């Protein structure tokens, strides 16, 4: 599954595992709660971003385009030089006709009507140095971005949010990630670091 831009550290499509979660459920709200960070004080970054035309991947390749709102928060960690990031997504996906369904082991080919909503996010540890003059503001909205992706994961409009706030040389590591897709009568799919279940028919 992919949310975040194909040619970046935020590409999650290759993170899928063969472990199965409970069908059609995902406790993403708890995992992306600020209480999961060992943090100091208030977030030093607390912004929202709108993204359109991001490409989404599953076990069988790229299958949909996503439009979503992303809430990005970063705290200084209790460990010197480390930062805890929590990023939450809510949005819509547009399944593409002729592409393979994203779930593990599926042989279904999408007809393009399997559209719906998705939600989720991730928690990550960033080790590095904050940029003293970040490219983006640290509060409020950072604007709307058209990634302009195609089904080969070329995304000329992609911009990494991490690069806007951290100096080069940072290390980014996921602590938890997960999304759940709701396609109505066409099923639901859970893709997360805890496992995968369900499917888009």
Features:
mainly beta, 201 residues, eight-stranded mixed beta sheet
Concise synopsis of the structure shown:
With 201 residues, the protein is mainly beta.
Structural account:
The protein has 201 residues and is mainly beta. It has one domain (13-198). Helix content is 4%, strand content 46%. The protein has an 8-stranded mixed beta sheet with strand order 5-1-2-3-4-6-7-8. Strand 2 and strand 3 form a beta hairpin. The chain is globular, with a radius of gyration of 17 Å. Residues 5-22 have low confidence and may be disordered.
Question: Topology, please?
Answer:
Elements (H helix, E strand, L loop, with lengths): L27 H4 L7 E20 L2 E17 L4 E14 L20 E12 L11 E8 L14 H5 L5 E12 L5 E5 L2 E4 L3
Parallel strand pairs: 1-5
Antiparallel strand pairs: 1-2, 2-3, 3-4, 4-6, 6-7, 7-8
The radius of gyration computed from the alpha-carbon positions, rounded to a whole number of angstroms, is 17 Å
User: What summary fits the major beta sheet?
Assistant: 8 strands, mixed
On the 0 to 100 scale, the average pLDDT is 89
Q: What portion of the residues fall into strands of 2 or more residues?
A: over 45%
Shape: globular
- Alpha plus pi helix count: 2
Low-confidence stretches: 5-22
